[in-house]
Amino acid sequence: MIRVEGLTKLYGDFVAIEDITFSVNEGEIVGFLGPNGAGKTTTMRILTGFMPATEGTAQIAGYDIFSQSLEARRHIGYLPETVPLYTDMTVRGYLDFQGTLRGLKNPRRTNRIDDIIERMRLDEYADTLIGKLSKGYRQRVGLSQALLHEPDVLILDEPTIGIDPIQVVETRQLIKELGKNHTILLSSHILPEVSMVCERVVVVNEGRLVAVDRPENLSTRLGGADRLRLAVRGPAGDVAAALRQVAGVLEVEVERAPGGVERAPGGVEQAHRFVLVCRPGRDLREEVAALIVRRNWGLLELQPMGMSLEEIFLRLTTHEEL
Ligand SMILES: Nc1ncnc2c1ncn2[C@@H]1O[C@H](COP(=O)(O)OP(=O)(O)O)[C@@H](O)[C@H]1O
Ligand SMILES: [Mg+2]
Predict the structure, then answer these.
(1) In CATH, 224-306 is 3.30.70.100
(2) Structural domain spans, the chain
(3) Ligand 1 neighbourhood includes 14 CB (under 6 angstroms)
(4) Which terminus of the chain is more exposed, N or C, with fewer CB under 10 A?
(5) Looking at the domain covering 2-221, what would its CATH class be?
(6) Which residues fall inside 5 Å of ion ligand 2, going by CB?
(7) What are the CA-CA distances from residue 16 to residues 9, 78, 267 (Å)?
(8) Two domains, one topology: 2-221 and 224-306
(9) Residue owning the nearest CA to atom 11 of ligand 1
C-alpha cells in the first residue's frame, strides 16, 4: 500500500533524509521510529504530497505521489505533527468545514461526520469549541479530519506526543481499532509506544534507515533481558574468559567507560563491569552467579539490562557501520 524507494531530501545542502526505502503492506500497522530530527516528519510530508523529494519515489495504493498526486492523495488520511485547528469552531462545525473543503456533499457529509464523531468517541464534545478541548481531544479531532474522505491509508505523525497518559492509552486504542480496516504508518520517538500498536517498525536515525523488523525482534536483538550487566571483583581477563565458556553466552564485553572500573572497598583487587550478550530467551543469571562464586571472585552486581532508546539507536547505527 505504501512503497518508498530511495527517498532523499535536501534542505539547501543539509541532508534531512537519505536513501530511505521501505514498504507497508495492506492492513499493516507500521511504526516509523526515530529520535527527534531523524527525518520522520520530512518523510511523511513527502509521502502525503506536501513537498517534493530531492530524489526517489513514493507510491500510495499504486499511485505515484508526484505524478499521480490527486489519485494518491485520495487514499491518504494525514495527521500532521501539528494539526492546524480552528479554535473558535465547534468540533462538528470544524469537521463540516473540512468536509466541504474535501468536496463531500450532504447528506453524505453529515452522515460521515456523525459516524466519525461516534467512532472517535467525541460525542460529548461535538458542540464544544475546539479551543476548550484538551490536547488529547484536539488530536482526536485531527484524526477525525484525516478520516473524512474515507481513506484506506493513514499517515499519523507522532499522534500521542504531548498528551496526558490516560489520553495516550485511549488514542492508542483508537489507532488499533482503525488498524482493523486501514493501513497505517505511525511515527514516534518512543520504542514502547510503537511496540504496543505496531506489527513492524521502520527505524531511522539521522536521516538514514537503520532497521526494519518486528518490535519484539528489535528488543531481542538489541537488549532487554538478553543482556546482563555485572560487576565482578577479580582479574578482568580471567573473569571474561570464564564467562565466555558459559553455554548461551554469545559475547562478553568488558566495560571501559568512565566508572566502569572500581576499587573494592578496602581491597586491592579491582572490580570490573561486564556486559554479557546472551542467546535470546536464555536466563543465565543463576549460572553466571554460581560460576563467579565457585571461582572465589566477588559478585557485586548482576542485572538484566534494559536499554534506553538512545542506546538502541546508537547500537543500531554502530552495527550498520561495522
Ligand atoms: N524546513 C526545513 N529547513 C531546514 N531543515 C529542516 C527543515 N525541516 C526539518 N529540517 C531538519 O531536517 C532534519 C529532520 O527533521 P524532521 O523530519 O522534522 O525530523 P523528525 O520528524 O524525525 O524529528 C532535522 O535536522 C531538522 O532540523
Ligand atoms: Mg517530526
Answers:
(1) yes
(2) 2-221, 224-306
(3) yes
(4) C
(5) alpha beta
(6) 40-41, 81
(7) 6, 21, 53
(8) no
(9) 16
